[in-house]
Design brief:
heterodimer, A: mainly alpha, two-stranded antiparallel sheet, 20 helices, 11 strands, globular, B: alpha+beta, Rieske Iron-sulfur Protein, five-stranded antiparallel beta sheet, 10 helices, 13 strands, extended
Chain lengths: ~550, ~350
């Protein structure tokens, strides 16, 4: 842009020196001027053009999610031009010979039409499906990144909740979309949802009846899911996404500890030009990876499953990966968890897994507020924690991941049994033990590892790292020379703070309430074990102790 | 974090902004961390493309080559669209169509992506910038003004003072979405009761057991010991609500050695010479219980692995289901065909709240 302006200014002879936009005959300048006088766009450019974004590979996870969502919208829009969201019965008459003449819904028929009779249609369908799988995976990893680095702390708690909402919406989008082709596999998924809903006390039967427009499967569900999938859910998702990004701008991005970085600044590359090139280029890379996956790897081959019919089912049925944890939770319930009481059926084999899943999600959503309440810390935090420096939080996260992984693995229990020649009972019982005990083991192991790593960091700060150089002292003693880390590296290792457990003291009324006791107990749980960063005094005395043998080091 | 609050080592500028940022906000139970001084940004290291003009030239060539490759990829994708038709229904042609269009598109995308990223990393000015952060909360004046505006609006409207107006408005706003909610009753048919529908299936006295999906009736003599048949009621395929009925009426028919069957009192006449019929719809969440282990006489649901023991009237021996699969009482009609004696004696399929 500037270069064009410069060139048109060239006759004046001072083009290089003056970047000021003067009135000129150049088209770009004229267009810019036209826009500016009608939109005041220069203010936006001034505000955001040089906005700084810090760099870290983990910050790309959210971008992957955003970009795969863009790919989903592009590919999904194409698919809507061909897909018929109708359950009207028809006889298939397309190119796929094995299904010729088979009775199926218009939805399945049009999904097969897209796959076999529209050039590039299968490619776009697969791009859409792969992008959806990647979208939810990227959101999940992005959430883990935000969790383990403490990026959810003030002022970003609400944005965490918005992000969590996006995660739930993405799963809902995934499930509604996956159900649309009305094939055997997705129909069985719907059947499971129907059975699940019916098991909910009080409202279950009628909820299912209203959702399916009568008895399962009915002739309504595909059309209704279509409205949810392409209108209602995307509208909410886009709104929440926009809000999510607005908050990223308002808060400015977090950054990891590093030399020169403080809570008051953000260091990185400006949007124009570097960040635009890198982030913009990254969109094409994400899209490219999805396109390659869609070209080479079949996903959701509905033609192998056939149309939905309530009677057949293929062995080894599995939902898309992100629904796995819910399906797994259902599988893990031991026999007999259902009772008739007060002339009603209480299906605890449904209620318990549903509560477990909802409980897990609620814990995820409210965690920032819990931690904020425990620490009582009301300051803004913009420097990220290294996971090891918040051992209890990291351990809680690891426990959560372990629990989720157990539920997720359970969704493949039958495949594990058949592939590894195990008994299904053995697999289920193992995963049951995993889900109950695993989180505790993961918690303790992670916490110990974090603390060990913090000790190691402290050791490196105070005594340097092992250089591998063995020196023989005059007395005959052999010693390995430790090199000091330079001050920039050292800063990364000491720039964190620890919290202490609360001292339980009576409040203004001289009372100790139950809430205070609970908070004190939580605080002790969180912060009992801690390793303080090395102080200046420690650093000096530490150096001193090794002064002689560190002769060659650069401290 | 530590360096906000610690005075001393920091420059004066960052100290003042620390106060501003935290606005005296409570540190909670945080203890001030290290008093080590932030050394400031490390010296800038030039990239190889900044130092060596040849490398710079090379990077430039790489970038535009990638962009040209992208153009080639787009052209390739368009050409593949034309060169690989799928209209003859050959699966191999479809594979080539998908593959080549996809690879062309991927090349076009990777060309732009890699080119732009390389341009940004290797050639664009390697100059990091610093933005200063400001507290998210607005300034004290802005906040005061916002409060003032609300106060003025309250005074001018009387929102706080005229409580009758205010409360009636709140009531009206709560009430007005109700009709909208009620409209959603229309999602399900008005003239049907789900509990009633769930309690009955198509089976009635004299319905022939027919094969799924062909609808051919089954003779008792055709059912040999150890065999299993997927069964639907006679006439199902002609019904308008075929799938809804099938979702309740699907049955598995098996013949065992009569001596192996443990039959409870009252059910002695429900089977015929070792031939038993059980609902195929899982009592957990309704998947078809489609896997039969002939040797052990176990039925396994492929969705959540509930396992039913046919010998013991399909009681649950493993998995999340609680109730046995309901048994369909059968007999043989005058022509030797298997028929139902009646409907199931209990609702089939997943449990529901109103199920007695």
């Amino acid at each position: 842009m500037t270069s064009t302006i410069d060139r048109t200014d060239a006759p004046a002879g001072s083009a290089d020196a003056t970047p000021v936009v003067r009135k000129s005959g150049g088209f770009t300048a004229a267009a810019a001027n036209y826009l500016e006088e009608r939109t005041s766009i220069s203010g936006v450019v001034k505000e955001f053009g040089r906005k700084i974004f810090p760099d870290h590979w983990s910050f790309l996870l959210g971008e992957v999610a955003l970009y795969s969502f863009v790919v989903i919208i592009l590919s999904g829009t194409f698919l809507t031009f061909f897909f018929q969201a109708s359950m009207v019965e028809t006889h298939y008459d397309g190119s796929f010979v094995p299904l010729k003449g088979v009775e199926m819904s218009a939805a399945m028929d049009s999904a097969l039409h897209i796959s076999f009779d529209v050039r590039g249609g299968l490619l776009v369908r697969q791009i859409h499906h792969w992008a959806a799988l990647l979208f939810i995976a990227a959101i999940g990893l992005h959430m883990l990144r935000v969790f383990f680095t403490g990026a959810f702390r003030k002022p970003r708690e609400l944005n965490w909740v918005i992000g969590f909402t996006l995660f739930v919406l993405a799963m809902a989008e995934g499930f509604t979309g996956y159900s649309l082709p009305d094939d055997l596999l997705s129909g069985n998924g719907l059947r499971i949802i129907d059975g699940l809903i019916k098991g909910i006390p009080f409202i279950g039967t009628w909820t299912s009846f209203l959702l399916f427009g009568g008895e399962f499967p009915g002739t309504q569900i595909v059309g209704r899911f279509y409205t949810l999938h392409i209108l209602l859910l995307p509208a909410i998702l886009v709104a929440a996404l926009a809000l999510h990004l607005v908050f990223v701008v308002v808060h400015k991005h977090t950054q990891f500890a590093g030399a020169g970085r403080t809570e008051q600044n953000v260091i990185g590359y400006p949007i124009l030009p570097v960040y635009a090139a890198k982030a913009g280029g990254f969109f094409f890379l994400v899209f490219g990876v999805i396109a390659l996956m869609a070209s080479f790897f079949t996903i959701n081959p509905i033609w192998n499953y056939g149309p939905y019919d309530p009677s057949p089912v293929s062995a080894g049925t599995q939902p898309d990966w992100y629904i796995g944890f819910a399906d797994g939770a259902l599988r893990l319930i031991p026999p007999g968890w259902e009772f008739v009481w007060l002339n009603h059926t209480w299906s605890f084999n449904i209620i318990v897994p549903v509560l477990a899943l909802v409980g897990l999600l609620v814990l995820v959503a409210i965690y920032p507020f819990v931690e904020g309440w425990v620490t009582g810390d009301k300051r803004e935090h913009h420097i990220l924690d290294r996971p090891r420096n918040a051992p209890t939080r990291t351990a809680i996260g690891a426990a959560g991941v372990t629990f989720y992984a157990g539920l997720w693995a359970a969704a493949s229990s039958d495949l594990m049994a058949t592939h590894f020649q195990l008994s299904i009972e053995g697999v289920i019982h193992t995963i049951q033990a995993w889900v109950v005990l695993g989180p505790f083991i993961a918690y303790f192991v992670t916490k110990r590892v974090c603390i060990a790593l913090m000790k190691k960091d402290r050791e490196i700060v105070l005594h340097g790292y092992e250089s591998g150089r063995i020196v023989r002292l005059p007395g005959g003693e052999y010693i390995e020379v430790h090199e000091q880390v330079d001050e920039y590296e050292r800063w990364k290792l000491v720039d964190y703070e620890v919290y202490e457990p609360i001292m339980l003291r009576p409040n203004a009324q001289g009372k100790i309430t139950g809430g205070m006791r609970f908070r004190a107990r939580m605080s002790r749980w969180f912060f009992e074990d801690r390793i303080a960063p090395a102080s200046k005094a420690e650093l000096e005395s530490g150096h001193h102790g090794h002064g002689e043998i560190e002769g060659g080091s650069n401290h | 974090m530590a360096h906000d609050e610690v005075s001393g080592p920091h420059s004066a500028a960052s100290d003042s902004s620390a106060v501003e940022t935290s606005r005296g906000a409570s540190t909670g139970t945080a203890v001030i961390g290290s008093d080590v001084v932030n050394p400031g940004e490390p010296p800038h290291r030039k990239r190889v493309t900044d130092l060596d003009p040849k490398k710079n030239k090379h990077a430039e060539r790489t970038v535009y080559t990638l962009f040209y490759l992208s153009i080639a990829g787009s052209i390739f994708a368009v050409a593949s669209y034309m060169a690989f038709p799928i209209e003859d229904g050959d699966p191999a042609a479809l594979r080539l169509n998908t593959l080549f269009i996809g690879v062309g598109i991927a090349l076009a995308l990777f060309g732009i992506g890699l080119g732009a990223v390389h341009w940004g990393k290797a050639l664009m000015a390697d100059k990091e910038g610093i933005d200063l952060r400001h507290p998210v909360a607005g300034s004290a004046e802005t906040q005061a003004r916002a409060i003032e505006i609300f106060d003025e609006a309250d005074r001018e409207s009387g929102f706080g003072r005229r409580t009758l107006i205010r409360n009636s408005l709140i009531g009206a706003i709560i009430a007005f979405p109700l009709p909208g909610l009620v409209l959603f009753r229309g999602l399900g048919p008005q003239d049907q009761d789900p509990v009633e529908l769930l309690s009955h299936t198509m089976w009635k006295k004299g319905s022939r057991l027919t094969l799924d999906p062909s609808g051919t009736p089954v003779k008792a003599a055709d059912v040999t010991i150890g065999s299993v048949f997927h069964i639907i009621p006679e006439g199902l395929n002609e019904r308008e609500d075929r799938l809804e009925q099938k979702a309740k009426a699907a049955v598995l028919l098996m013949r065992l050695n009569p001596a192996d069957l443990n039959i409870s009192p009252g059910r002695e006449s429900w089977s015929y010479d070792g031939i038993v019929a059980y609902s195929k719809i899982c009592t957990h969440v309704g998947c078809p219980v489609a896997l039969y282990e002939q040797q052990t006489h176990h039925l396994l649901c492929p969705c959540h692995q509930s396992t039913f023991d046919v010998v013991n009237e399909c009681e649950v021996i493993f998995g999340p289901a609680k109730r046995p699969l309901p048994q369909l009482p059968i007999e043989v009609d005058s022509e030797g065909y298997l028929v139902a004696q009646s409907d199931f004696h209990e609702p089939v399929g997943p449990s529901f709240w109103e199920r007695p």
